[in-house]
Prior knowledge:
Elements: E1 9-14, E2 17-22, E3 28-33, E4 36-37, E5 55-56, E6 62-64, E7 67-70, E8 73-76, E9 86-88, E10 98-103, E11 106-113, E12 123-132, E13 136-145, E14 151-153, E15 156-157, E16 160-161, E17 171-173, E18 176-179, E19 193-194, E20 206-207, E21 214-220, E22 228-234, E23 237-243, E24 249-253, E25 267-272, H1 278-281, E26 286-288, E27 293-302
Antiparallel strand pairs: 1-2, 2-3, 3-4, 5-15, 6-9, 7-8, 10-11, 11-12, 12-13, 13-27, 14-26, 16-25, 17-20, 17-22, 18-19, 18-21, 21-24, 22-23, 23-27, 24-25
Amino acid sequence: MSHPVTGHQYEIAAGPYRAVVTEGGAGLRELTWEGRPLVLSHGADEPAPAAFGQLLIPWPNRIDRGRYSHGGADHQLDVSEPRYDCAIHGLVRWAAWDLAEHRPDAVTLTHRLLGGAGYPFRLDLTAEYVLAGEAGLTVRVTARNTGPVAAPYGHGAHPYLTVGSPIDDCDVTVPGERYQPVDERMLPAGPPVDVAGTPYDLRKPRRLGEQAIDNAYTGLRRDAAGRAWARLSGGGRTVSCWVDDTHPWLEIYTADEAPAEHRRRGLGVEPMTCPPNAFATGIDVIELQPGDAFSGSWGIMSG
């Protein structure tokens, strides 16, 4: 008897929304509204291409040469992105997660990350996906340090928003006051820069055209509830991604190097608790003490 390569497929639904979350990586494989995709999806027998829908734990984005220091010790992670000589997107996006609860409108998965080479810390992780007919999808990620020493921690996620047409023809809104320049290895090149007067100013809706972006934004404008909203609009449709105030960073990626059939068909809008190369720089890294927990939420909805 064969099984999907991404493991069990957990379907949830509420009102016009439907989602599929995978055992592999606790990833968001599908999200639709009235049968129309809100994120780029992939097959159950296809490992997530270009990190589609994956959770990025215990760090998002890149770490230069996989090297960082913490607690007076130097650490060397596996270089998982040889092209740029970096460790990328954490340690759990290909791991099997355990089912904790599955209701018609929600699923909760857990994973125990044990200490290993480069990250000798222990975390108990929980990912909860909830659908509501009005609010769409809410994702809540929690990490608890169940080890004996403080652990460096950050998390992120990698959905690609879509309205079913190429993003070149779409209007994009990103609420960031500053963006992070990067060098030829996609690592930070100096401090974040004010977006005013640059092609990266997306604070008001703007047609994307052929502009390529693979940069983190910060200084996020927020609503009264503390949420920052990014939006993609086109063809009479809009899809929105929000992040709570535990996420001061949003990576925006125009999918220029996604597989050909998906290239620039969706906009990567990646909630992040810390910026690229954070373990090496220390910027916004969470010092998770033994017994402590950290949670953050984000979500996607139509409109």
